[in-house]
Amino acid sequence: MPLSSHKNKLWCIDTLAYRFYQRVMGKGRLLIWLYAVLLGGMSLPASANVDRLDEGVAMINNLVSSVQDIAKQQSTSTEIHDQTNRIIDQFFDYESVASFTIGPYWRKASPEQKQDYLKTFREVLIVQVANNFDYFRTLEYHHVNAANKGQDWIIIDGIIHDTTNTYPDAVISWRIRNIAGEPLTIFDLSVENVSMLITQKDENMAIIRQNKGNLDALIDLLRERSKDLRMARNDSGS
Amino acid sequence: MAMFQTIRNMACFALLASLSACANAPDDLAVNTNDPYEDFNRNMFAFNMKVDDIVVEPAAKGYRNLPQVNQDMMTNFADWTTLPSTSLNSALQGDAENAALGVLSFLVNGLTLGMADLTDDSDDPVQTNFEDTMRGYEVPQGRYIVLPFIGPGSTRSHSAWLVDSVTNPLRFASTPAASTITAVSPPVRVVSYRGNHYDLINDVKYGSLDPYSRTRSIYLQYGANIGDSDDQSKDDPFDAFIQSQE
Question: How far apart are CA A50 and CA A101, in angstroms?
Fold first, then answer.
């Protein structure tokens, strides 16, 4: 088709549409409407990303203030246990996090082993966090930056400052799982670029390997660890 | 005595060089791709933990009980003794400004044997060593190795440590003061480092199910994040996890 006739055809369609909208909406309103659709269409994914980043930042701020609220209260150990449990359910995709920490052994595990591991690992996590609440009391968190990492992740960077100046400032990064249409969940925390989850995974995998692939050996060790940590907490009188 | 130390260092260097050569062993023979000498390393780690129990941790505890001024003096002294190496390596890395700052800080702070930091913070040189120089020349990190008394590292970091020890300009000064400083600085450095990272190290030592693998993981992640090429080629483990779920 010659270019001129193609242009004419487009011109005809444009003219017909223009006349139609001129009648219905008036010239000025049509142009504004077209601009709005064009700009809206172009900026929709970007604004969705920005919204997601803002949502992530708000979630981390919310988590930090929840932890600080608990740390400020003189709660009993049972109360801290329950509150920490709630925080895990509210902010983390616990099952994914736990399955990540044993790598390929998760798939090989029986349903009973999976349940056992989920329960025991959560116990250790909660007691460890609960035992460190005294330390959280003197910490301040300052947000620094938020950015997308690929399609699946949002990385939020911040600085932890110890108000007693016992420890130097530390750069931390939250890794948040970003699945379209689903709530954001925290997946990992890195301190000075050392990932807590990868460290945990390496340790767990080493233990399973040392026990010739036996996941139950890790679960037993975690059970003992949980018991020791509870005893340490009771001995410290909190 | 100095000759004996040099020969011993050369022998260690030769041993490390041979280990570097062995580092290309097939991965399927290795328990962990980064750690083909895991059994040896675990034994060395256990030995180092005993040394820590008996000597280093009690000394670090004592260090932490000192007044802050004294702790700062020890840390400053430990940092000061590394300045000649910093200058030398900065020169090798082509950073003349840092090399000059190293010399300047060494001379100025030398008036107090390095115990007081008399220079402005902005004039403090960035500490560097032969491993940074090797990294700059893209020497691969090599395999993970734990050595007795020295601790965790890679074939490259341990080799670099030896080179730094042998080439430290302080060793070539034949005055009694320089010999004393050279002899005193390693234990001071160990105790001040252990004391300054007391809680962190104790957390790994007493708070983990397997302190060896936790230490290794932290060391290798840290190495990967400062640009060690061995780990750069690996896929992001988090992306791999998402893909395995889909």
Answer: 30
Q: What is the pLDDT of residues A125-165, one digit of tens each?
A: 998 888 877 778 888 999 999 999 988 999 999 999 998 88
The domains of chain A are located at: 3-226
- The size of chain A, in residues, is 238
Contact B213 A202 (CB under 8 A): yes
Q: Is the pLDDT at A88 greater than 60, yes or no? A: yes
B241 contacts on A by Cβ (under 8 Å):
96, 100
Does residue A206 sit at the B interface (CB-CB below 8 Å)?
yes
Domain A3-226 has CATH 3.10.450.710: yes
Question: Using H for helix, E for strand and C for coil, what is the string for B103-160?
Answer: HHHHHHHHHHCCCCCCCCHHHCCCCCCHHHHHHHCCCCCCCEEEECCCEEEEHHHHHH
CB within 8 Å: B238 and A207:
no
Report yes or no: A144 and A159 within 8 Å, Cβ to Cβ: yes
Which amino acid would we find at residue A101?
T
Tokens encoding B38: 């895991």
**What is d(CA A130, CA A121) in angstroms, rounded to the nearest whole number?**
14
Question: Please, are residues A209 and A105 in contact by the beta-carbon 8 Å criterion?
Answer: no
- CA distances to A114, A198, B38 from A89, rounded to whole Å, are 18, 21, 37
- In angstroms, the separation between the Cα of residue A143 and the nearest Cα of chain B is 21
Helices (H), chain B: 2-22, 38-51, 57-65, 68-81, 83-92, 96-109, 130-136, 155-167, 169-172, 176-196, 198-207, 211-225, 229-232, 237-245
Rounded to whole angstroms, the maximal C-alpha distance in chain A is 90
Strand blocks (E) in chain A: 139-149, 153-162, 170-177, 185-191, 194-195
According to DSSP, the residues that pair with B224 across neighbouring strands are none
Q: Which of A128, A153, A203 sits opposite B210 (nearest CB)?
A: A203
pTM over 0.80: no
Count up the domains in chain B and report the number: 1
The residue segments making up the domain with residue B44 are: 2-245
Q: What is the pLDDT of residue A68?
A: 85
Q: From CA B111, how far away is CA B177, in angstroms rounded?
A: 13
Q: Which of A142, A168, A166, A149 is nearest to A61 (CA)?
A: A142
